[in-house]
């Protein structure tokens, strides 16, 4: 079966039409007829080979929604069922981490777009054990970005016990950050948005923030000293972490879901005296993706999207490169 | 009532005989006739004014054990009762953190030796709400170092859920680190000691470690890649944190209880992909001190000490400065 896809033939190339033969389905595999695919910042990273793990031709796309076109006998899915796939395509499912429900930390985990073709395509064959049923109440286009961006910000909220009344700051109001604002508002939190873009600071209140501040002006950040139980940073940029740490309460957590380049520079003293924590978080487990989809259904949460036909993928990628998307671009077939 | 103490009259001075008039007892205060006082590395810091908070004349000493000589009517203590005091002398007891049992994080907390005279003395008047009954089974000299050093390493073990079977590394085998080895071994952990001192690495197995490694040789540290649930650093020194982070399992925690000078340099990538955590911990709450004393009683844990008469305090301080103590110096009256 031939898949019509879009692929970057080398690092930093635009994507271009590319066909490949899909593998035969194993008993746990499914073939998905893709209707929507979100574009995540990490698609730009893998196209550019920023992490030195890319394999070309590279078919990007890992926020996939579509319908089951073929279902392996043991997949548990039925034809026509609406499903989604995120960043992770597989794990060993036998190591201690997998058995404990942390398959997103499995040493043998594989990603959809790294060494395997992704969702910039009309279809994909992938392991049904990492495919998720989409609840009927959720729209396909608005849900595609939840599969990666959504769970990436939702998982640390659960891990760090965010609940009604928690004070949470979100740094970077893009594809991930705007979803964080929506989740946090629905959880009953006191929500602060930090963005370097004045217009996004204005828009952040419609997205769920109670207040907004600059992510780059030290004086603006300092006004929030001692405020946050959790500070969630979605930006792959160097920021003034020393000042941001001062915005945490004692026992507060700065959780990074975007990786800044180079080394973080952090003072040890404020970590000790306020028992503060710096941590990273990496997408989410399958249980967390299900929980996030249920929460999104209950609270009517989806991404704020712009759509473009799959054929305009290069224009869409360029708009993301220019930080010009409000707030997630979703390609449609 | 005149207290006969030893005080540094200015930063970095030796201590010298110094008398002061103790305040009258409030209803919650007690007067303790001091029998033993441990010497902690932070006594060197406050004598040297390393944290720019010292007030002179400065009476060091905050690992105090003695007997109740006077008891305020509301103190709950009785004359002759054996008690101990650690680093913290007071907190507001009304803020949200205090009410939640985190008085060690109270913004208004005060330390024994900072602006108040400490335990290098024949007696001390202090708030009985931060004084702890010493269980009969524990020796006074071996218990004094538990009040600060002990709880400082015990608290993060509880906070991070250390339990039988946990793999824990301890960096720096001094006053704090040797107690960490003893606690961890009693908890049923797999225990690894990291020290820059070859002789301490040899001695660490008698203290509870299953194995020992250099804390400064990268090749030695790397042999423990992916090993630890918790890595507890007791050293106020710059180490190769990038390599140490590689010794953590996914979801592992590097907890600092000693503050390295300058800025920590940390890569964000390994924090994200393994969901690793860097955090600080600051002494422990009153509940944690009680729990630690109960644990020490049940498992017969005390500090490995050397004793010296109070009059030899300067010699004892110098030995600590030279990293020549095995493993905690305790002054006796």
Structure description:
Two copies of one chain form a homodimer. The first copy, chain A, is of the alpha/beta class. Chain A folds into two domains: 2-148 and 284-332, Quinone Oxidoreductase, Chain A, domain 1; 150-280, Rossmann fold (3-Layer(aba) Sandwich), CATH 3.40.50. Chain A has helices spanning 41-47, 96-99, 140-143, 149-159, 175-186, 198-207, 218-222, 241-245, 268-273, 286-298, 313-321; strands at residues 2-8, 15-21, 29-39, 63-71, 82-85, 88-90, 110-111, 123-127, 132-133, 167-171, 190-195, 211-214, 228-233, 248-256, 263-267, 277-280, 305-309, 328-332. In chain A, strands 3, 4, 5, 8, 9, 17 and 18 form a seven-stranded mixed β-sheet that branches. In chain A, helix 4 (149-159) packs across helix 5 (175-186). The longest helix of chain A has 13 residues, at 286-298. Chain A is globular, with a radius of gyration of 20 Å. The model of chain A has no long low-confidence stretch (mean pLDDT 96). The A-B interface holds A 97, 102, 105, 250-251, 256-257, 259-260, 263-282 and B 97, 102, 105, 250-251, 256-257, 259-260, 263-282.
| Percentage beta strand of chain A | 25-35%
What is the CATH C level class of the largest domain in chain A, in words?
Answer: Alpha Beta
Q: What is the global morphology of chain A?
A: globular
Mean pLDDT of chain A: 96
- Strand pairing plus helix content of chain A: what structural class? alpha/beta
Assembly state (oligomeric): homodimer
Named CATH architecture of the largest domain in chain A: Alpha-Beta Complex
Q: What ranges of chain A have pLDDT less than 50 throughout 5 or more consecutive residues?
A: none
Order of helices and strands of chain A: EEEHEEEHEEEHHEHEHEHEHEEHEHEHE
Largest two-chain interface: A-B, 29 and 29 residues
What is the terminal separation of chain A in angstroms?
Answer: 18 Å
Q: Could you estimate the helical fraction of the residues of chain A in percent?
A: 25-40%
Radius of gyration of chain A: 20 Å
The name of the CATH topology of the largest domain in chain A is Quinone Oxidoreductase, Chain A, domain 1
Number of helices of chain A: 11
Give the total of domains of chain A.
Answer: 2
Tell how many strands the DSSP assignment of chain A holds. Answer: 18
């Amino acid at each position: 079966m031939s898949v019509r896809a879009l692929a970057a033939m080398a690092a930093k190339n635009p994507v271009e039409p590319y066909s490949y033969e899909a593998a035969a389905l194993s008993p746990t595999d499914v073939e998905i007829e893709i209707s929507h695919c979100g574009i995540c910042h990490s698609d730009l990273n893998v196209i550019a080979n920023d992490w030195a793990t890319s394999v070309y031709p590279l078919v990007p796309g890992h926020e996939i929604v579509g319908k089951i076109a073929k279902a392996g006998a043991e997949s548990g899915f039925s034809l026509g069922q609406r499903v989604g796939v995120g960043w992770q395509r597989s794990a060993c499912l036998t190591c201690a981490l997998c058995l404990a429900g942390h398959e997103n930390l499995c040493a043998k985990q594989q990603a959809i777009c790294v060494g395997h073709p992704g969702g910039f395509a009309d279809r994909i064959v992938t392991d049904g054990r990492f495919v998720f049923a989409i609840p009927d109440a959720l729209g396909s286009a608005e849900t595609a970005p939840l599969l990666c961006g959504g769970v990436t910000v939702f998982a640390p909220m659960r891990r760090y016990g965010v609940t009604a009344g928690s004070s949470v700051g979100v740094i970077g109001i893009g594809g991930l950050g705007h979803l964080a604002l929506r989740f946090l508002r629905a959880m009953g939190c006191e929500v602060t948005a930090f963005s370097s873009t004045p217009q996004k600071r204005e828009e952040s209140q419609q997205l769920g923030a109670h207040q907004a501040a600059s992510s780059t002006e030290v004086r603006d950040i300092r006004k929030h000293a001692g405020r946050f139980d959790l500070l969630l940073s979605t930006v792959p940029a160097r920021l003034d972490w020393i000042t941001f740490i001062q915005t945490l309460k004692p026992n507060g957590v700065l959780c990074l879901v975007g990786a800044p380049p180079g080394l973080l520079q952090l003072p040890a003293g404020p970590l000790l005296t306020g028992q503060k924590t710096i941590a990273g978080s990496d997408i989410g487990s399958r249980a967390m993706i299900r929980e996030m989809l249920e929460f999104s259904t209950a609270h009517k949460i989806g991404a704020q999207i712009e759509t473009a036909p799959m054929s305009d993928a290069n224009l869409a990628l360029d708009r993301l490169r220019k930080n010009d998307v409000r707030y997630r671009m979703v390609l449609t077939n």
